[in-house]
Amino acid sequence: MSEQKSNNNQQLYYAGIAVVGLVVLIALWFLLGKAPQQEPVKPTAPVIVAEPVETHVAALPAETALATEPPELQTTATPSEEIAELVVAEPALPVLDESDPEVKQRLLALDWRAGLAGLFVTEDMLRNFAVQIDNIAQGQLAAAHPLLQPLEQTFRAADADDMQLDSRSFSRYQPYIQLLESVPPQQLVQLFNRYEPLLQQSYAEQGYPDQLFKNTLIAAIDLLLATPEVDYPLALARPSVVYIFADPAIEQLPAAQKQMIRLGPDNQRKVKALLQRYRAALLATP
Questions:
Q1: Is the pTM of this model over 0.85?
Q2: Which UniProt keywords apply (predicted)?
Q3: Is residue 87 over pLDDT 60?
Q4: Digit-coded pLDDT (tens) for 1-41
Q5: Nearest alpha carbon to residue 217 among 231, 228, 202
Q6: Which residue has the higher pLDDT, 75 or 211?
């Protein structure tokens, strides 16, 4: 942690990677819910034409009696009508290298909280998502693949002499937390279904042609959820220009977990609650 401007950008990447980027991509992956399938139309029983016989009509079962209704009262959809209802035409999927314009348009069209959608970095979006998840699953943070615009406020310690993680720094992450909470997960169903092949392609390009990106996503979620609970305020040390956690047990944690701790207790609880929700839904899908 550093008070210098260059390290401020690093803090941005941490926030974007460990908070917004991950959960948005989790939503893309877990929302596999398919649209309710239309019940197949049962074949209509053949119309029975018979001479009226008083002694037998009353004894006919209900199903048979219904089948004797006039043909004009029985309606059923033709196969072509059923297909028209079930199939919604979508434009062809763009190639990965040319996907940014469409992804940007569809992502920003969702009901994000006013003024927050501009936080997204809209270049090489799908590849950056895949790179970040792969790194988080390994406990790392990839600063070279930003997902969000820089934090507006710089990091600071609570006191120059008795250094602690300043609780006022936690408010820097509020816009990102609000961004996460502003869009119902259901709005991301179509995005995931559409771009799943491109996300898998991007993951294969990273050197994992035989691995499912979904499995790596679950591993990334589990690593963040395993962030230990700590007591605040947290003491800091500054052996050089960069702040570190004074507690060696905290300082040796994976970088992704240390970023979760930097969010502060309230923000961390909100993010973990979201992660639990997404993880459960992800595992519930085939």
A1: no
A2: Membrane, Transmembrane, Transmembrane helix
A3: no
A4: 444 444 444 443 344 434 444 444 444 333 333 333 333 33
A5: 202
A6: 211
Domain assignments of the chain as residue spans, ordered by start? 5-33+89-284
Tokens 């034409």 appear where? 49
Neighbour-count burial for 18-48, b at 16+ CB within 10 Å, e otherwise: bbbbbbbbbbbbbbbeeeeeeeeeeeeeeee
Q: How far is CA 83 from CA 15, 42, 92, 196, 249, in A?
A: 45, 15, 19, 24, 60
When pLDDT is averaged across residues 154-163 and rounded to a whole number, the result is: 68
